[in-house]
Amino acid sequence: FCIGTTHNRHHTRRLFLTESLRNMSSAAKAAGANAFRAIVRSRVSARRFEPNKNIPNGIMRDILESTITSPSGFNLQPTHVMIVRCQETKHRLAKEVMLGAGNSYRTIDASAMAVFLADLEVHKRINRIVSLERDAAMRDPNYMAILPVAASFLTGEGHAATFLKQMATDMLSPVQPMPSIEPVEAWSYKNAALVAQTYTLAATSHGLATCMMEGFDTRRAKEILRVPDRYGVPLMVATGYEYEGGDGWSGETKRTPRLEMEEVFFGDTFGESLDLDESEQQSNDIKEEVS
Is the pTM for the entire model greater than 0.70? Predict the structure, then answer.
Protein backbone atom coordinates (compact mmCIF):
# COMPACT_ATOMS: atom_id res chain seq x y z
CA PHE A 1 0.00 0.00 0.00
CA CYS A 2 2.47 2.69 1.11
CA ILE A 3 5.39 2.20 -1.22
CA GLY A 4 6.90 4.80 -3.54
CA THR A 5 4.49 6.95 -5.55
CA THR A 6 1.47 5.29 -3.99
CA HIS A 7 2.57 6.47 -0.55
CA ASN A 8 3.22 9.98 -1.90
CA ARG A 9 -0.23 10.11 -3.50
CA HIS A 10 -1.94 9.06 -0.26
CA HIS A 11 0.16 11.53 1.75
CA THR A 12 -0.67 14.44 -0.58
CA ARG A 13 -4.36 13.59 -0.55
CA ARG A 14 -4.36 13.34 3.23
CA LEU A 15 -2.74 16.77 3.60
CA PHE A 16 -5.28 18.25 1.18
CA LEU A 17 -8.22 16.79 3.10
CA THR A 18 -6.80 17.93 6.44
CA GLU A 19 -6.38 21.48 5.17
CA SER A 20 -9.88 21.41 3.65
CA LEU A 21 -11.37 20.38 6.99
CA ARG A 22 -9.59 23.22 8.77
CA ASN A 23 -11.03 25.74 6.32
CA MET A 24 -14.59 24.43 6.43
CA SER A 25 -17.34 26.83 7.46
CA SER A 26 -19.52 26.09 10.47
CA ALA A 27 -22.33 24.98 8.18
CA ALA A 28 -20.01 22.64 6.29
CA LYS A 29 -18.71 21.18 9.55
CA ALA A 30 -22.27 20.64 10.75
CA ALA A 31 -23.08 18.87 7.47
CA GLY A 32 -20.00 16.68 7.90
CA ALA A 33 -21.04 15.82 11.45
CA ASN A 34 -24.53 14.94 10.23
CA ALA A 35 -23.12 12.69 7.51
CA PHE A 36 -20.79 10.91 9.94
CA ARG A 37 -23.58 10.53 12.50
CA ALA A 38 -25.82 8.96 9.86
CA ILE A 39 -23.13 6.47 8.87
CA VAL A 40 -22.27 5.42 12.42
CA ARG A 41 -25.85 5.15 13.64
CA SER A 42 -27.14 3.35 10.57
CA ARG A 43 -24.57 0.54 10.71
CA VAL A 44 -25.83 -2.77 12.04
CA SER A 45 -24.41 -6.29 11.83
CA ALA A 46 -25.90 -7.84 8.73
CA ARG A 47 -27.75 -11.08 9.33
CA ARG A 48 -27.81 -12.05 5.67
CA PHE A 49 -26.23 -10.91 2.40
CA GLU A 50 -27.50 -10.83 -1.16
CA PRO A 51 -25.63 -13.70 -2.89
CA ASN A 52 -23.82 -13.49 -6.20
CA LYS A 53 -23.36 -9.73 -6.07
CA ASN A 54 -19.94 -8.15 -6.54
CA ILE A 55 -18.58 -4.92 -5.08
CA PRO A 56 -17.17 -2.73 -7.89
CA ASN A 57 -13.41 -2.33 -7.73
CA GLY A 58 -13.70 1.46 -7.57
CA ILE A 59 -15.81 1.25 -4.42
CA MET A 60 -13.51 -1.29 -2.80
CA ARG A 61 -10.47 0.85 -3.62
CA ASP A 62 -12.09 3.88 -2.01
CA ILE A 63 -12.93 1.84 1.10
CA LEU A 64 -9.34 0.65 1.38
CA GLU A 65 -7.90 4.13 0.80
CA SER A 66 -9.95 5.27 3.80
CA THR A 67 -8.99 2.18 5.79
CA ILE A 68 -5.27 2.79 5.39
CA THR A 69 -5.57 6.14 7.19
CA SER A 70 -6.29 4.34 10.49
CA PRO A 71 -4.04 5.31 13.42
CA SER A 72 -1.59 2.87 14.99
CA GLY A 73 0.90 2.81 17.85
CA PHE A 74 4.17 4.51 16.79
CA ASN A 75 2.65 4.54 13.30
CA LEU A 76 3.99 0.98 12.92
CA GLN A 77 0.88 -0.02 10.95
CA PRO A 78 1.02 -3.66 12.07
CA THR A 79 -2.13 -4.69 10.20
CA HIS A 80 -2.63 -6.26 6.81
CA VAL A 81 -6.00 -6.93 5.19
CA MET A 82 -6.88 -9.72 2.78
CA ILE A 83 -9.98 -9.18 0.63
CA VAL A 84 -11.23 -12.67 -0.16
CA ARG A 85 -13.61 -12.67 -3.13
CA CYS A 86 -13.03 -16.11 -4.66
CA GLN A 87 -16.23 -18.09 -4.23
CA GLU A 88 -14.38 -21.38 -3.86
CA THR A 89 -12.21 -19.97 -1.08
CA LYS A 90 -15.24 -18.50 0.69
CA HIS A 91 -16.95 -21.90 0.52
CA ARG A 92 -13.90 -23.51 2.13
CA LEU A 93 -13.85 -20.89 4.87
CA ALA A 94 -17.57 -21.42 5.47
CA LYS A 95 -17.29 -25.21 5.61
CA GLU A 96 -13.92 -25.70 7.32
CA VAL A 97 -13.30 -22.56 9.40
CA MET A 98 -16.47 -20.83 10.56
CA LEU A 99 -18.18 -21.67 13.84
CA GLY A 100 -21.96 -21.69 13.65
CA ALA A 101 -24.41 -21.76 10.76
CA GLY A 102 -24.86 -17.98 10.75
CA ASN A 103 -21.19 -17.26 10.13
CA SER A 104 -21.05 -19.98 7.50
CA TYR A 105 -23.87 -18.76 5.28
CA ARG A 106 -22.82 -15.13 5.68
CA THR A 107 -19.33 -16.09 4.48
CA ILE A 108 -20.71 -17.79 1.39
CA ASP A 109 -23.16 -15.03 0.45
CA ALA A 110 -21.02 -11.98 1.25
CA SER A 111 -19.41 -10.26 -1.71
CA ALA A 112 -16.06 -10.25 0.10
CA MET A 113 -14.49 -11.35 3.36
CA ALA A 114 -12.06 -8.82 4.79
CA VAL A 115 -9.53 -10.83 6.81
CA PHE A 116 -7.50 -8.73 9.24
CA LEU A 117 -3.97 -9.89 10.00
CA ALA A 118 -2.02 -8.68 13.04
CA ASP A 119 1.77 -8.72 12.90
CA LEU A 120 3.18 -10.65 15.88
CA GLU A 121 6.81 -9.94 14.95
CA VAL A 122 6.58 -6.17 14.94
CA HIS A 123 10.33 -5.60 15.19
CA LYS A 124 10.67 -6.75 11.57
CA ARG A 125 8.75 -3.73 10.29
CA ILE A 126 10.40 -1.01 12.38
CA ASN A 127 13.13 -0.22 9.83
CA ARG A 128 10.55 0.17 7.06
CA ILE A 129 8.46 2.57 9.15
CA VAL A 130 11.51 4.57 10.25
CA SER A 131 12.44 4.95 6.58
CA LEU A 132 8.93 6.20 5.74
CA GLU A 133 9.03 8.65 8.63
CA ARG A 134 12.42 10.02 7.55
CA ASP A 135 11.23 10.48 3.97
CA ALA A 136 8.13 12.33 5.19
CA ALA A 137 10.31 14.62 7.38
CA MET A 138 7.36 15.42 9.66
CA ARG A 139 8.72 14.25 13.02
CA ASP A 140 10.85 15.95 15.61
CA PRO A 141 14.49 14.71 15.40
CA ASN A 142 14.38 13.67 19.07
CA TYR A 143 11.34 11.50 18.39
CA MET A 144 13.06 9.87 15.42
CA ALA A 145 16.13 9.14 17.56
CA ILE A 146 14.17 7.14 20.14
CA LEU A 147 11.57 5.60 17.82
CA PRO A 148 13.37 2.29 17.06
CA VAL A 149 14.29 1.65 20.69
CA ALA A 150 10.95 2.70 22.16
CA ALA A 151 8.93 0.74 19.61
CA SER A 152 11.00 -2.40 20.20
CA PHE A 153 10.68 -2.08 23.97
CA LEU A 154 6.95 -1.43 24.14
CA THR A 155 5.87 -4.11 21.66
CA GLY A 156 7.35 -6.96 23.68
CA GLU A 157 7.62 -10.24 21.82
CA GLY A 158 7.87 -13.53 23.71
CA HIS A 159 6.50 -14.40 27.14
CA ALA A 160 9.84 -14.12 28.94
CA ALA A 161 10.72 -10.73 27.47
CA THR A 162 7.26 -9.37 28.21
CA PHE A 163 7.38 -10.67 31.80
CA LEU A 164 10.77 -9.08 32.47
CA LYS A 165 9.71 -5.75 31.02
CA GLN A 166 6.51 -5.82 33.06
CA MET A 167 8.51 -6.45 36.24
CA ALA A 168 10.86 -3.56 35.49
CA THR A 169 8.08 -1.07 34.72
CA ASP A 170 6.00 -2.19 37.73
CA MET A 171 8.96 -1.58 40.03
CA LEU A 172 9.61 1.90 38.64
CA SER A 173 5.98 2.98 38.34
CA PRO A 174 5.64 4.16 41.98
CA VAL A 175 8.62 6.47 41.39
CA GLN A 176 7.90 7.83 37.92
CA PRO A 177 5.41 7.33 35.08
CA MET A 178 6.12 4.14 33.17
CA PRO A 179 4.50 2.61 30.06
CA SER A 180 2.21 -0.39 30.29
CA ILE A 181 3.86 -3.47 28.82
CA GLU A 182 1.47 -5.85 27.11
CA PRO A 183 1.98 -9.03 25.07
CA VAL A 184 2.53 -8.37 21.40
CA GLU A 185 -0.75 -10.17 20.60
CA ALA A 186 -2.73 -7.69 22.71
CA TRP A 187 -0.91 -4.70 21.20
CA SER A 188 -1.17 -5.84 17.60
CA TYR A 189 -4.78 -7.05 17.89
CA LYS A 190 -5.75 -3.68 19.40
CA ASN A 191 -4.26 -1.91 16.38
CA ALA A 192 -6.01 -4.29 13.98
CA ALA A 193 -9.34 -3.46 15.64
CA LEU A 194 -8.81 0.22 14.82
CA VAL A 195 -8.29 -0.66 11.16
CA ALA A 196 -11.33 -2.95 11.12
CA GLN A 197 -13.56 -0.22 12.52
CA THR A 198 -12.38 2.28 9.90
CA TYR A 199 -12.95 -0.31 7.17
CA THR A 200 -16.45 -1.06 8.43
CA LEU A 201 -17.52 2.58 8.54
CA ALA A 202 -15.99 3.22 5.11
CA ALA A 203 -17.99 0.29 3.72
CA THR A 204 -21.15 1.61 5.38
CA SER A 205 -20.60 5.01 3.73
CA HIS A 206 -21.01 3.24 0.37
CA GLY A 207 -24.28 1.62 1.41
CA LEU A 208 -22.68 -1.78 1.99
CA ALA A 209 -23.68 -4.17 4.76
CA THR A 210 -21.07 -5.62 7.11
CA CYS A 211 -20.75 -8.16 9.88
CA MET A 212 -17.67 -8.37 12.12
CA MET A 213 -16.90 -11.99 12.99
CA GLU A 214 -14.53 -13.64 15.45
CA GLY A 215 -16.15 -17.07 15.60
CA PHE A 216 -13.73 -19.09 13.50
CA ASP A 217 -10.82 -21.51 13.72
CA THR A 218 -7.74 -19.31 13.29
CA ARG A 219 -5.36 -22.20 12.59
CA ARG A 220 -7.53 -23.50 9.75
CA ALA A 221 -8.09 -20.01 8.35
CA LYS A 222 -4.35 -19.38 8.16
CA GLU A 223 -3.80 -22.71 6.45
CA ILE A 224 -6.44 -22.09 3.76
CA LEU A 225 -5.37 -18.48 3.15
CA ARG A 226 -1.63 -19.32 3.32
CA VAL A 227 -1.00 -16.78 6.07
CA PRO A 228 2.55 -16.96 7.49
CA ASP A 229 3.02 -17.91 11.15
CA ARG A 230 4.16 -14.35 11.80
CA TYR A 231 0.54 -13.10 11.74
CA GLY A 232 -2.51 -13.60 13.91
CA VAL A 233 -6.09 -13.32 12.65
CA PRO A 234 -8.11 -11.34 15.21
CA LEU A 235 -11.26 -10.89 13.13
CA MET A 236 -12.92 -10.95 9.75
CA VAL A 237 -15.56 -8.62 8.33
CA ALA A 238 -18.12 -10.05 5.92
CA THR A 239 -18.95 -7.31 3.41
CA GLY A 240 -21.62 -7.09 0.75
CA TYR A 241 -25.19 -6.04 0.08
CA GLU A 242 -28.11 -6.47 2.45
CA TYR A 243 -30.39 -9.35 1.46
CA GLU A 244 -33.36 -7.98 -0.47
CA GLY A 245 -35.95 -10.47 0.74
CA GLY A 246 -37.69 -13.66 -0.28
CA ASP A 247 -37.49 -17.23 1.01
CA GLY A 248 -39.44 -16.28 4.12
CA TRP A 249 -36.86 -13.68 5.13
CA SER A 250 -38.20 -11.50 7.94
CA GLY A 251 -36.85 -8.27 6.51
CA GLU A 252 -34.79 -5.35 7.81
CA THR A 253 -31.93 -6.02 10.21
CA LYS A 254 -32.62 -4.45 13.59
CA ARG A 255 -30.08 -2.84 15.89
CA THR A 256 -29.10 -4.89 18.93
CA PRO A 257 -29.69 -3.19 22.32
CA ARG A 258 -27.02 -1.00 23.89
CA LEU A 259 -26.31 -0.10 27.50
CA GLU A 260 -27.53 3.27 28.73
CA MET A 261 -25.13 6.22 28.33
CA GLU A 262 -24.59 6.54 32.09
CA GLU A 263 -23.54 2.88 32.28
CA VAL A 264 -20.74 3.41 29.79
CA PHE A 265 -19.47 6.96 30.07
CA PHE A 266 -18.05 8.45 33.28
CA GLY A 267 -16.61 11.77 34.38
CA ASP A 268 -13.30 12.54 36.05
CA THR A 269 -13.22 9.37 38.17
CA PHE A 270 -14.54 5.88 37.51
CA GLY A 271 -18.28 5.69 38.09
CA GLU A 272 -18.66 9.46 38.42
CA SER A 273 -21.63 10.85 36.52
CA LEU A 274 -20.67 12.75 33.38
CA ASP A 275 -22.39 16.11 33.19
CA LEU A 276 -23.40 16.81 29.60
CA ASP A 277 -26.14 19.34 30.29
CA GLU A 278 -26.24 22.05 27.65
CA SER A 279 -27.49 25.57 27.51
CA GLU A 280 -30.78 26.12 25.70
CA GLN A 281 -28.94 27.74 22.76
CA GLN A 282 -26.51 24.79 22.42
CA SER A 283 -29.45 22.40 22.48
CA ASN A 284 -31.18 24.30 19.69
CA ASP A 285 -27.98 24.40 17.61
CA ILE A 286 -27.58 20.62 17.86
CA LYS A 287 -31.25 20.05 17.00
CA GLU A 288 -30.78 22.19 13.89
CA GLU A 289 -27.73 20.13 12.91
CA VAL A 290 -29.59 16.84 13.35
CA SER A 291 -32.74 17.97 11.50
Answer: yes
